[in-house]
Amino acid sequence: MMTPLIALAIAAQSTPIEMRCGWLHNPTPGNWWLADRDGEWLIGAQGGYQAPGMDEMPDMSTAGWTETNGHYGHGCACIRITVDRRTRRVTRIVSARPLPLRRCQADPRLRRP
After folding, report:
1. Which residue(s) pair with 31 in the sheet?
2. What are the distances in angstroms from CA 19 to CA 13, 30, 82, 98?
3. Helix (H) or strand (E) run with residue 101 in it
4. What gap in Å lies between CA 14 and CA 23, rounded to an integer?
5. Residue 21 pLDDT more than 70?
6. Nearest to 78 by CA among 110, 48, 30, 55
7. Within 13 A of 89's CA, how many CA atoms are on the CB side?
8. Which residue among 1, 36, 51, 93 is least enclosed by CB atoms within 10 Å?
9. 103 closest CA partner among 43, 4, 21, 12
10. E strand or H helix at 102, and its extent?
């Protein structure tokens, strides 16, 4: 018989890695989410949840970044992640790369930040 812990470990390993591209928001310290064509995905909440892999994300302001609160703001990015579709939470960041702002601005499926 499989224990719940083993079942969770197997499920986590079988979660597919997805490439999601869209607006990456970081309006204040610790608050991060990605808004793509399917909606918003929580990456981190100040004082709370932070997706594993956040600390290895590169400087996302290198291809363009709109500052709205000091150096906090939003940019355009593609992120390889695993997600929990039920909670709309990013469960792991595998890799990330910033994109030029014009890429997200030109995508009619993305809502403007």
Report:
1. none
2. 17, 22, 9, 13
3. helix 101-105
4. 27
5. yes
6. 110
7. 11
8. 1
9. 21
10. helix 101-105
User: What whole-number distance in Å separates Cα of residue 90 and Cα of residue 44?
Assistant: 8
* Kind plus residue range of the DSSP H or E element containing 73: strand 72-84
pLDDT digits (tens, 9 = 90+) for 32-86: 999 999 999 999 999 999 999 999 899 998 888 999 999 999 999 999 999 999 9
Q: Which amino acid is at 35?
A: A
Q: What six digits make up the tokens of 43? A: 């990456």
Integer CA distances (angstroms), 3 to 6, 9, 20, 45, in order: 5, 10, 33, 31
Residue with tokens 């910033």: 98
pTM of the predicted structure, to 2 decimals: 0.85
β 66-69/89-99 pair status: unpaired
Q: What is the mean pLDDT of the chain?
A: 90
Distance between CA 53 and CA 25 in Å, rounded? 16
